[in-house]
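hey can u check if this looks right to u? its 515 residues, i copy pasted from the old doc so theres a chance i mangled smth
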Amino acid sequence: VPLKETNSSPLLKQYKTMAIFYRSGFAILTLAASSHFSPRILVTAFTPISATLLRSCRSPPSPPYRQITPNNGKRPHALFSTSSDKSPIREKIRYIAGRRALVLHPSTTPQTTLPPLVILGGMAQSISSWEFHLQHLCSVRSVMVYEALGQGPPPPSEVCSIDGSDVTLEQYYRDVTLERQGRDFWEVVDEAFYDPDSYYRQNFVGGDGSSVLSEKQVDVAGFSFGGRVAMAAATLRPRRIRRLHLTGVGAERDEYATVVLTSWKEILGAHSETHADSSAQWEVSETDIEEECDPELHSSRCTARLRAFAWCIILSTYSEQFLASAGPRRVQAWVDGVCRYNTEEGLKALLMQTHGSVVHEVGRKLSIESSEQNANLDLWTPASMAQRIKTDGCVESFRVVVGSQDKMASPIQALKLAQLLGLSNNDCNDGIQESESLNRYFRVIDGCGHAVPMEALKLWREDVLEFLAKCIDFRGFGIQSGRHQSRDSRRERPMPPFRIWSMFFALGITSLLDI
């Protein structure tokens, strides 16, 4: 409680002077240990006059995406942009090789030519899900995020065609297998970066980029379904992927994840023969079917099935702590985002063709493909692709990241995938998963569910940047414990000089005024 200014007793003045020195020492220690200069941390030690002056010289607050940690109790930022206004980033979205994509380049030409970074999101994600990462990832390299076939809003009529003929969404998504996704990946990459007329090749491939240009290499960061698409691309052309960062991908599905996937298929009608009698509850009104669709605003049919699927996938892929800190309103906004940027037809096709046995709906009946085609499907499981990638030995390095509370790709299954990629059992000791000889890593993020890139934005982004920049020795770093960075990394970031001098200047003035 501030002392009254009207009391002029010498003893009180002396006491007040000592209190000011105590307050100053408390403030110095607090600010030195804090990465955010805010007067709110001084409430218990300073008078209102002091807080007002300190507020005038504080550094700008951290943006929302830097404040989110898995277990700090803060409300997370939106996973989808709920604003109707188009952001400057979203206005750059265009179709590349028939896929909705966003390409960002560094503001200045880097001294060293680095391969572009391609980001591949999860099954029900869109480009909007990655807006908070892109500005940070494209500081020294070109970055592209695109929506694979089956993801994203319904394509325009000029794209939704086969051999020049207009088709329905069901026909357009007839083949969304991982093999097809891998071929599409390289078509998009070649047109976006290595076409002779591409902006990247003309402006960002210098004299030192001859190897990048000759090999046409890229770095890839894939999450969940996007991670399996990245592995399919690496299986088809292993020499063209330099480094592969996988998040939320396991060698196999455990029992719980299998049950969750079955529920998703049931919700979207993949087993419509079993539930033909109860299909009336999923009927869509004529107004919903005839409503015109804006790809930027909503999906083709925001049916009850699609909304139920959105709720189910969010509850299954995010940790309980994260959802509790978000609150019902934000979760509702995320559900709206899934419905706005996805189609029921595309998600259903992805579930049937990339998550288990291949099935095609013929009228009201489902027919399982021949055993030969099912055997071909087995060639594109994560475990099979990992073995083929390891055999080729062309990809320079890998990292497998997983949340400790991941229900869809458990840490055990993620570790199995890392071992198939080349992680030795002898390197998994004392909680440090590392293989220096083969330069492949495995990492568990404590307190996160399946969606690590969305729950721990900064931590995941820094992990990707560090992995791509150099092959880091994580000895002593170990498994994260709900923090964005290690103590060593925090020590390496000193307080800016402006903050130090402004702090002492403010403390000197406030001490004189308080006395």
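The chain has a mean pLDDT of 73.
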